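Appendix B: complex inputs.
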Amino acid sequence: METLQKIAVPLIAVALFLLAWEALVWVNDWPNYKMASPSDLPPAFWRFRWLFLEMGWQTLWRTVLGLALAVVFGTLIGMIMGFSRIARDGLYPLLVGFNAIPKATLVPVIALIFIGQHDFNTVLMAFLISFFPIAVSVGIGLSTLEPEYRDILRSLGASRLTIFRKIALPKTLPEFFGALKVSVTLAFIGTNLVEIVSPHGRGLGALFKSGETNGDYPLMFAVLIALAVLGIVLYYAVLVLERIFAGWAERPQS
Amino acid sequence: MANLIEIKGVTHAYRTKAGPLPVLDGLTISVPEGEFAAVVGPSGCGKSTLTRLVAGLMKPDQGEVWLHGERVTTPRKTVGMAFQNPVLLEWRTILENVILPLEIVAPSMPQKDRVARAMHLLDMVGLKGFEGKRPSELSGGMRQRASLCRAIVHKPDVLIMDEPFGALDNFTREDLWQTMRDLRAAEPFTAVLITHDLRESVFLGDQVFVLSGRPARTQMVLAVDLPADRTLDVLYQPKAQEMLHTLRDQIRIAQGRDGGAH
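Resulting structure:
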């Protein structure tokens, strides 16, 4: 009963949303260049099914690779900031400043530095836009570790590396995954930004752009839906990883 | 018998923005092997600094700390620690928490033996059946019991406790005193217990060291000549009451008030 409810309620909600959307277009009698209706979407998906698969794959692997780089680099920066006060004081204003730059403005800059390197540019943007939350959360997680936690191992003569591996790293995991949920969405935005703006780009962003160029409005809406689906998949992938590695942080339900 | 813990003329000051803040001033404490030293004193008199010095987590400005005839300058594997906050690791079960020191101190010990040792201790403190639980599923008293098991699982020579029962309610605290007494009977170790609770110091200590207000010196040493297998009733008998009175007066002096004032 409970599992049925868990599956049925979201499905019904989605169905109601689609119905409302269809009704909105029908009542206003909008042409599909103003707003496509849900019934326009299946034909668009079917007609470009191979393109959707190919472009979806492009968007997916570049987002995941950019995010993976952000995890490695962000964790590293976070560790440096977490362990050294001087590094924290020095790096923090730089990071905040960099984060404040709207990343869309970096697209032409990157495009000029690495002309024609479409894959590289896309991954780079996904990375640049998504490492900040990870660096900050790991840094804060490590620097707020209560000294007693360190002392129980340090009093036994454990090395800094052992203390990091056995205490600091697992204790920071819940914060890390909290940040990763934000970062995965950001990386996705970064990928699409470059895909849409680049001439001769690939990926779902480029497909969206070609829909616009060719006046194929149902295709544009279909891409939006595909992006939403991909975003949901990525988000839930992070959620599954969180369950596996930081499931202990969830309070047992009573 | 030789003194296992020897603190000789230790002076220490913290550097703060307002200048040096002296916390210990020529402190001297000796604890013979197997004995239980309780340390009491007014708030903020440097008692916690003392635990960190004995554990080798910091070095004193002046004076020396000796354990087992060796001068302490760095942490050593033969020390166990317990704090007011049980600091159990949430991502580990109770059993895995108790095993943690063995992973550091005895990396070659077979897992089977580690589990057997931890289970033996958990059984002794009444946590049998809870070994698979997470710390968040246990009460405060049970968590502190697990923390005590972790502090002695690697059979340390010296057990250092910084107000381990301070955050517990009175009845739970008295239960844990008795657990502590039984652990001591079963496992030989030399202990330093920092506490605010005078009854606790008399119930558990062989000697009670009264520290003066900051910077702390040893103001008085009280030998507790009560039987080793004492029960809570002992605390209500004249002998213990007299000791508690003496300690109470000493604390008043340490706080800078004379014996008669309230």
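The radius of gyration of chain A is 22 Å.
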